[in-house]
Write a structure and sequence with these properties.
232 residues; alpha/beta; Alpha-Beta Plaits; 6-stranded mixed β-sheet; 4-stranded antiparallel β-sheet; 31% helix; globular; binds ribulose-5-phosphate
């Protein structure tokens, strides 16, 4: 097994120690979250009783395949804990998410949870955010106008950079919610809160990948072991 996968499994295993019998869990998306699902499924086989709300169709399919019981936010609107990966984490536990295109459901699920724990390897810890292009989920209608508005909003925040419409198999990538993703390469984002507010003011923006004030802890796996970052 390669070193990167070992780190993902180590972070996921540590996150599992926070899961208690009877919990209602939000279950994230991505390769690290999938390691968590695999470990969780083993515990479920051994008698752990939980229900999970998956943050994507991809995660839902893996949970079903491995026998992790699922529910929905309609049946179970309040969750105890969400475990999810991230593309970037800063020292204040602000995140960039959405590399897997699931940011909208991920944010809805995290916001419905008493707490969110991020699982990641050391390479995801940055200062400041912005090395990873910021995913912005947009309505398909009016794409051209929305792109212009994103550029203008970014400029007001002193940011600029290419906006790329995410592609898959030669066509625009479509999210589980039926939207497009624009990957914004702004570079360093010194004030994520201001950028977040500016993006939310654009009608065609459905959601963006800045997760602010949602994660309580981040379990970070490095070659020298595991450390847990807490929100200051
Ligand atoms: O936000 C996400 C999906 O939308 C993922 O959590 C993020 O992309 C990290 O993925 P990975 O664990 O594969 O690096």
């Amino acid at each position: 097994m390669d070193e990167a996968r070992k780190l993902k499994i180590a972070a996921a295993a540590e996150a599992l120690t926070y899961v208690r019998n009877g919990m209602r869990l939000g279950i994230g998306t991505g390769s690290t979250a999938e390691e968590f699902v695999r470990l969780l499924a083993e515990e479920v086989k051994d008698g752990l009783e939980i229900v999970g709300v998956p943050t994507s169709e991809r995660t839902a399919a893996l949970c079903r395949e491995l026998g992790v019981p699922l529910t929905t936010l309609d049946e179970t609107p309040h969750l105890d804990l969400t475990i999810d990966g991230a593309d970037e984490v800063d020292a204040s536990l602000r995140l960039i998410k959405g590399g897997g295109g699931a940011l909208l459901r991920e944010k809805i699920v995290a916001a419905a949870s008493d707490s969110m724990i991020v699982i990641a390897d050391q390479s995801k810890v940055v200062d400041p955010l912005g090395r990873f292009p910021l995913p912005i989920e947009v309505n398909q209608f009016g794409l051209g106008a929305t792109l212009r508005a994103i550029e203008a909003a970014a400029a007001k925040c002193g940011l600029a950079g290419p906006l790329n419409l995410r592609q898959k198999d030669g066509a625009p990538f479509v999210t589980d919610g039926g939207h497009y993703i624009v990957d914004a390469s702004f570079g360093r984002i010194p004030d994520p809160e201001t950028l977040s507010n500016a993006l939310f003011a654009i009608p065609g923006v459905v959601e963006h990948g800045l997760f602010i004030g949602l994660a309580q802890a981040a379990i970070i796996a490095g070659t020298d072991g595991i450390r847990t970052m807490k929100r200051p």
